[in-house]
Amino acid sequence: MNILISGAxxxxxxLAWFLxxxxxxxxxxxxxxxxxxxxxxVDITGCAITVIxxxxxxxxxxxxHTKELGTQFIDPNGRxxxxxxxKEGASGSFTSEYEILRGDMAALLYEASKIYPNVTYLFDxxxxxxxxxxxxxxxxRLSNGQVQEYDLLVAADGQWSKVRKQCFPSESVKxxxxxxxxxxxxxxxxxxxxDWWNVYQALRSRVITLRPDPHGTIRAMFxxxxxxxxxxxxxxxxxxxxxxxxxxxxxxxxxxxxxxAQRLLDAMDQAPDFYFQAIQQxxxxxxxxxxxxxxxxxxxxxxxxxxxxxxxxILGAYVLAGELSKLQDGEHVSKALDGYDKTFRxxxxxxxxxxxxxxxxxxxxxxxxxxxxxxFMALLAKLIALxxxxxxxxxxxxxxxxxxxxxxxxxxxxxx
Length: 416
Hints:
This protein is α/β, with parallel strands linked by helices. It has helices spanning 11-21, 46-54, 58-63, 102-114, 162-167, 229-238, 243-254, 261-267, 297-300, 309-325, 333-351, 367-384, 408-414; strands at residues 2-6, 25-30, 41-43, 70-74, 80-85, 99-101, 119-123, 127-133, 138-142, 147-150, 152-155, 173-188, 197-202, 206-212, 217-224, 275-284, 288-289, 292-294. It has a domain at 2-36 and 102-174 and 285-355 and 395-412: 3-Layer(bba) Sandwich (FAD/NAD(P)-binding domain), CATH 3.50.50.60. GO terms for molecular function: FAD binding; oxidoreductase activity.
């Protein structure tokens, strides 16, 4: 098969690796001039760890671990009151045993897949137009002027995919707003910074966190849940505005947040990776249409609230490659695409069911709500520390609700 993948994030290169092992000709296009080193922490959990192990990349993932010691909730003076340390082979922390920066994860997958002679990466390239998508082929016009035909086009170009917008009717895509906004950026590390994920809850539904990375810097994250209609409108408009407008909004609404807010705001305009987004899910009624299929955030962005975006991208790529490997001579690609949808959708829908109290419970608007949450978390930290309450199953062995399908043909090709 001759396959085009749009997007060189996590999902695209993972799929390229498995398709390359299966003997397909794969072209991956990416709109950026090169791989972007940016991105915050991502988790790899459950069956996704097994897939990474199949790819022979688990040691590399460990090597690029953020070295985060665990998660701790802190008071306005920076004093921890509810620590949840990471302990090897045990659950009980909001920090994963396989914590890695998104940019590092994407780079590992890119390096692993590009070595195959049947994989080609084209940077600074996009799909200008999907010329046709019918029973025989999918034809695209690329931004470099070339018009090419493929057996399959995989849209892995992110939550707001331009490929999806071209090929799927708007009524097939549902955007679920979680009433939360996030700003991320990287700041210089100070000697006083530590290797914990420090979570500080300001009042008026604001949260500030700091996390270590393996590159000698610190990752800042500000989250906000608007408290009234005017604030909601301002932040919603901000998510569609330019960087300067977004920075001004952050400074205005976080200036009095306390803790290290001012330090982080002062460093914001110098950050090379400032990113601002509204937290919204993508839900599609069907992931494929003819010879175009959506993968990863393009098909089912679950939001950072689930901690499962990267794992879904990896698992989805494995399932899609596995279903394609089952095709017999003469069978239409739609059979594999339907199999991918049928096999993976129940798990995706389960992951996307965020409890109604979340993320509101983590963003207290008033002092008494914050106090109540802090008392609960402090008690929970003490309970989880008890040896007889701590799970000792590895992150890979923990049941994430998905049974990894076995694809004999693909497995045989992987082992060669």
